[in-house]
Amino acid sequence: MTSVPERVTDEPTTSAEPKRRGVLAAYLALTKPRVIELLLVTTIPAMFLAERGIPSPWLVLVTLAGGAMSAGSANALNCVADSDIDAVMHRTRSRPLVSYEVPRKHALIFGIVLGAASFGILALGANLLAAVLSLAAILFYVFVYTLVLKRRTSQNIVWGGAAGCMPVVIGWAAVAGKVEWPALVMFGVVFLWTPPHFWSLAMKYRDDYASAGVPMLPVVATPRQVSARILVYSYATVACTLLLVPATSWIYVAFAVLAGTAFLVVAQRLHGAVRRNGVANPMALFHLSNSYLTVLSVAIAVDAAVGLPSLG
Q: Among 175, 185, 286, 271, which residue's Cα sits nearest to residue 223?
């Protein structure tokens, strides 16, 4: 289980000289806790749906602990690899390596140790498949997204975002010992959700990415092209959520339709504002996208816990 590229990261720091943190707080900041929170939110419903009920609390605790360490490992190693561009971008200048609160070598060791601990916890507390998937996600995020895709292509977030889809697959594997089709559908939902979520953020901070030489889509494409792609991916996301209908009851379907409608309305408004050359507010979609994924996750978990007959 690992991170989605920058997907729920922070607002820019308002101070040129960020406040110094304690040692523990600095190392915690390396793991990007806000990213981890959303990743774990998507893990739990996958476990509930795989169990078709309430899974073992111990297994949930172990999976969340291992997943948090895995995501923390990927994020810490990402901070090591991206420390040069983090120093250039205004919104990332408060990160511990940039502010010299954590030595680069120590951060590297910290990330590796977290990853090893995650593998051990998941292998011993869940199963080997969950542990291997988690390790694969770390390696993909660091070596494929961070070191290869991020600085070379505007499609970086599309393919790199696959690492952030892994929590649902890992959660499912922890319960079932295998990966079944609903887990792949949930993977697809997060995969399709990531571009509109992140591109809306990148629209606001376009100049930040441009100054760092990172070819995020809003840097290399026109606002109209970006908003159009956001809209396409938003529709694809909502359509993908409906593929879970055979494995769920009316509870999930009701929430998926209502939340999906709200998501599409805001995405449509963003595209409409850009087309009219009006004042666009991409952060409205960014913040709503967080809530949208959370509502879907809660709906899946509640649906599975209640145990109503599935529609399939």
A: 271
Identify the DSSP state of 91.
Answer: G
DSSP code of 56?
P
Specify the DSSP element, H or E, that contains 303: helix 282-306
pTM value? 0.89
Nearest-angstrom CA–CA distance, 97 and 300: 38
What does the angle CA 271 – CA 277 – CA 279 come to, to the nearest 5 degrees? Answer: 80
* Cα–Cα–Cα angle for 154, 160, 165, rounded to 5 degrees: 140
Q: Give the CATH number of domain 23-306; options: 1.10.600, 1.10.101, 2.30.30, 1.10.287.
A: 1.10.600
Per-residue pLDDT of the chain (312 residues; tens, 9 = 90+): 554 444 444 444 434 444 567 889 999 999 998 888 877 889 999 999 999 999 999 999 999 999 999 999 999 999 999 999 989 888 888 899 998 999 999 999 999 999 999 999 999 999 999 999 999 999 999 999 999 999 999 999 998 888 889 999 999 999 999 999 999 999 999 999 999 999 999 999 999 899 889 999 999 999 999 999 999 999 999 999 999 999 999 999 999 999 999 999 999 999 999 999 877 899 999 999 999 999 999 999 999 999 888 887
* Burial letters 54-89, b for 16+ CB under 10 A, else e: ebeeebbebbbbbbbbbbbbbbbbbbbbbbebbeeb
Cα 103 to Cα 141: distance, rounded to the nearest angstrom:
22
